[in-house]
Amino acid sequence: MVQRWNIRPRSTRCSLCGKSFQKGERVYSVLVEHSNGLQRLDYCQESWEKVTSEPSFWLASWWSLFECPPKGSSFVPVAGWAEQALRKALREGSEPDRAVAFLLAGWLERKRLFREVHRETRNDDHSWIYFEHLPTGEVWKVPFPERITLQSFQEAQKTLQELWHQATGGSGEASNKKPSLAKMTILSMV
Prior knowledge:
Elements: E1 26-34, E2 37-43, H1 45-52, E3 60-65, H2 78-92, H3 95-110, E4 114-121, E5 127-133, E6 138-144, H4 150-167, H5 181-189
Antiparallel strand pairs: 1-2, 1-3, 4-5, 5-6
Helix pairs in contact: 2-3, 3-4, 3-5
């Protein structure tokens, strides 16, 4: 059985007292079982001492030195960008945009921001997939592109690369990493 983990990155605040971490500060992290899978909790030194005085309730623990998250105008959160690009593709509605929307929705589902809730096929052979946007509960109706070909996926990938280039002002950076849209396309086809 393949297990999927969706463990969030390190927090900027202590899970117990809410204190902001400072650069170079030791951060103690644990994984605990939660109803939705594994949950990560991060603690400062003082909170860690309180937590470890009680019987352990975590599956794993480790520590690291806190690094400030990247700042600057070139930082584009990939998930936020994907949601905006999906909204635009759904507004446009042409056949190439249907393929882009399908790929973006698949990628957001893979990142566990979307969950498929319903499929619909109408008499005119148009298919739709309904996704719930888990953070907001909003439902998105995404068209399933008809007769998917390798060429249509390559065109959609090129469109995604152009949209990404526009969103980053040509820097191609998100969190100091260039996203692999080819990888994103392949993942969304799985």
